[in-house]
Fold this protein.
Amino acid sequence: MVCPEQAIVSGDVDDPGSKIATLIREEPTSQRRLEKETKPRVWYLDVLPESLEPATAAEPPQYLWSDRAAPPPPVPAGFEMPQDLITTLDVHHKPAWGWHVWTYLLTKNIASGAMILAPLVGLVGIVDGPSSRYGPEVVALVFLVITNFLLVHDLGRWERFWKILIQPNTKSWLVKGAWVLTAFGALITLSLGLQALGYREAADLVRWLDLPVAVMASGYSAWLFGQCKGRDLWMEKGLFLQLVARAALMGAAMGMLLPQVVDPSHPKAYHNPCAHAFIWLSVICAFGMVYERQRAVRGRAAQLSEAILRDSFRCQAAVSLTIVAAALAQVGMLFDGMAALRWSLFGLAVACSLVGLFYYERSWIRAGQAVPNS
Amino acid sequence: MSQTNDRAPSGEVWQVTPLESFPPLEKWDDWVELDSKSWPRRVEKRYRLVPTICFNCEAACGLVAYIDKADGRIRKLEGNPYHPGSRGRNCAKGPATLAQVHDEQRILHPMKRVGARGEGKFERTTWDEVIRTLAARIRRAIVEKRLTEVMYHVGRPGHDGYMDRVLQSWGVDGHNSHTNVCSGAARLGYVLWSNGDRPSPDHAHAKFMLLLSSHLETGHYFNPHAQRIIEGKMAGAKIATVDVRLSNTASMSDYWIAPYPGTEAAMLLGFARVILEEGLVNEDFVRRWVNWKGFLETRRPDMDPTFANFLVAMKDEYARYTPEWVADECGIDPQTVVAVGREIGKAHGGLSAHVWRNAAAGNKGGWQVARCLQFLCVLTGSVGTKGGTALAADNKFKASPFKKPRPQEVWNELLYPIEWPLAHHELSFILPHLVRDGRGRIDTYFTRVYNPVWTNPDGCAWMDMLANEESVGLHATLTPTWNETALWADYVLPMGLAPERHDLMSQETHAGRWIGFRQPVHRVAAEAAGRKTEWTWETNPGEVWEEDEFWIALSWAIDEDGSLGIRQHFESPYRPGERITIEEYYRWIFENSVPGLPEVAAKEGLSPLDYMRRYGAFEVEAETLEVHEKTVDVAGCELDSETGLWKREGQVVAVDVEGEARQGFGTPSKKLEFHSPTMETWGFAEQALPNYIETHVYWRSMDRKKGEFTLVPTFRLPTLIHTRSANAKWLYELSNSNPVWINAGDAQGLGLETGDLVRVNTASGHYVNRAWVTEGIRPGVVACSHHLGRWRLKDVPGTDRWAAAPVAIEREGSKFRVRRTGDIGPFESRDPDSKRVFWKDGGVHQNLTFPPQPDPISGMHCWHQRVTVEKARPGDRYGDVEVDIDKSFAVYKAWLAEAKRPDPKLGVRRPLWFARAVRPTDAAYLLRDPS
């Protein structure tokens, strides 16, 4: 028996004779956020709607009888909070997702971006050489290893990782994501192996085969976040495309820099279409960061999360840095004959882009969790 | 200011029902449960379940300790389904006792002071040394006839009558209590009606509940009452809650009424007038049970003494309390006065009403609030009825121990000073002021589960007295938890928590009678496993003892040879001449003093003691109603036709009510005294009837423009219990700050927002706290909860660090300054939770800044303060407190001047029919020449 006092009644809802079924049938009950379609199995009797709907009460700097374990979420300018409804006590929950997650989003996109670039190196005019033959795979593998490390570390206990592999919940995008990343890693290794053994055409073919997997490796997180039904900010439509665009941006950045890093002497390195792609993708990504998010349901919690995101200094900085990155790349392209200056500007542009994306992922992950779930 | 809520969902399944499940009694000796912390592994744990009684508030709810057979530690505390009061349910404070039992900072051994008193330096000593030292001292005082110099000062008694017996066996007049900072005023109001000093409302069956407090969350007997209030509400009763704050209870009520503090009596008389004018009086009851004839004869000689004339006379008496006048005086709606007055009138026998502290404890004349509230019960005939309000004495069962000592023959002026002949309890909170005033000194002073330095008003005056070895020769503090007063003790004596001690308890939780047995569960388990123990401290954590045995050992040592006549009271009734064991003490009571218990126990094949050990409680009577109506056999008695009293050999045994001899009430007239002849005789004729007295914080005398407010400093929190929550990490995790509530409009005027620092100035000092801005409080009133603002002197070991902030106390002449030297925060200990402390503030100790304000009649400390509130000044820091004890002493003097010595012609210093704590002989009441 969970609660002998019966303040909480638990039992078989499907048995019409059970106490809980009788209560649900005969008393007015409420449920929490049905619009989320999570089919909640908890019914509340005589509950205030405000206690089920997040972000409907103002958050004071202290509680009625208690200090706060963490300061209240910032109230963005222009966001109206009720004057007469105040949270008087709440239990602080540390945000479940922290630096592991926003760092993983970035490192995963770098790995994905590298392999989106890989089959295209020939087409976009990157000169043939070690940089075009091994560069994308090496970069992708390094960042994929970091990504996997972050994922496993975030699980807290290593054995949980094995549990995901051995006893998978096949409906979960955590599991599906693990499969995608495993396939992604396998194909990269295969392509690298074929290159090393001299089967260049076969390697190119594997690169093409890996392209959709690289896209999925970046974009599957859209469904993973979509599973967090309580986090309105993460429910946005078009998240998949945004993630892939950011991966592609990373690919373009690499394509812009790779020849410089690996083979700077080659004359054709100067005519790199990746710089154009970098500029355009930066603009697209910046737009993605500021556009009005489209969601199936826009409750107060969603509005507050989004307002917090917009209001966040780092989010604003992310947008600025992404635009600045595009501008620097554009300026760099003007200096056709001045290699050092051009490469410095390209390098600076990519640095801005990396910091910008890091900031954005961080703000987005944090803002998504800033509003309490209840 | 009222609101009406929709009815709660109804239906049978919502009724309060017995617990759905609990380990069956036959398995209590060996109960197997899976260990939750080992999940998902299935690890079986074996427990012995031993019942006991909670000690964290006075309600005495049942607990059951799960004792792990592997290591003998208590694993958890749950409710006891066999307890008639709590019925298996508990509030947060009960199970949290476990955190206190296992607290790493707990003092586990008797400690003796080594530095100067108040310096906080102690070393470990032995119980033997403690007993020897104290016994020699007390023996000397007794032999030298200094019978008023030994004082036992108790905060939470936790038992019924045990100490009365100890002190009377010593022959000293030394029982002091906390009552006059708590319920002294309400008690006087109730006593004047019936000589029953507490209400016992039958909420479960009420038609209308009138609560002057936040009963559902914190009220007196919170847990037993709250579950019955909900029961009554589910059955259709309505609730009106009178409180300046929109408490959780108020928000669950049908009416929230927030009159100006101190005008409650006017409001209640407004209700009474509605009942009188609209003919809603329960005439049958009033005619039979109210002393109306006496009233008419004394006050209305112009009228024939008929009941019809009494109704007219009452209307005359309360004519001025029209809804409009009341509304204006109290700051409420006239419609509310009429609506609630009618609802009360229609309750007709089913009005359950309760005040214990609230307005009665806050205001000068607060005792009249209780008297006016009971007036409504009387008018509606709801006294002792089903769904009405009984007297505590009818619903509480006091079992007598063996061999009662003779009453003491002395009167202690430090306890009941001559200026307060009608004080219901000791003038405990002005003890330092009386000592400073030269009224006496104390040779040996016990504080027991009592923390006057922190809890009482003017704590700095207590520090001043306790630090002075001329005023207090020796101070021993007996306490289950760490407290501030212990810093000024010579001995700190750790006593058991709920599962570490014996006590016998009974409380008026509902219209029935029960006893509960508190027991040291480790000892019970050890003895069940075959380990015999002499003293309870052998099985408790460390050397934590229990008072019952401590007093036996001490009394025995005081009179080892029996020459003082003390020893005989501590000799076993079963083994003549030998020292009694605690088991024998309770065995005798259960065998001889509890009707029905031996028979019920025998049916189960148990001795009465074993029955109580097993169940932890016994229901003496399932339903107790209308005790006053009991007929009395008056064979051989004489009827005094003048008074209607039946007497046997001069002793009143019954009262004639319309031709039948009935038990009646405890007043001299055996009736409910609407008109109190006692008040008339003792010089308070103007207060002989239920009446409205202007408070010391009367709103019309406040200048809001100057920032003057009434401070309501008394409200409780649901999860804390005064300072006894110490060492309970779970409770302080829930509640750890006490900001000053201020109405949003008032806050705007002062430029305050929630979280801003405010300075609150009283007549003797000020404190600095944060503001909590809310619509949920009456404008013109600020409120600050007590319980919080615990402190510790820096670097004193063994002090609570969950709730107590480190402070430095500086003294300059009469001026004290308390300033925090740090925040509460995570700390190192073997308990990993100590690193998880997230709170910093810990609250502000406001009571230090309150001068004592003894009510001129009841002697109760009038808690509400006239204050000015301002934004904190530059340099003010959170938690700052400054006090001048000369200023507070001047306030004491001013209130003292309002009190009234009895007329020497009365011959005695107190009405003989009034109860007195540890009552001395009648001869001690005689007034002697004041010089």
The CA atoms of residues 286 and 319 of chain A lie 5 Å apart.
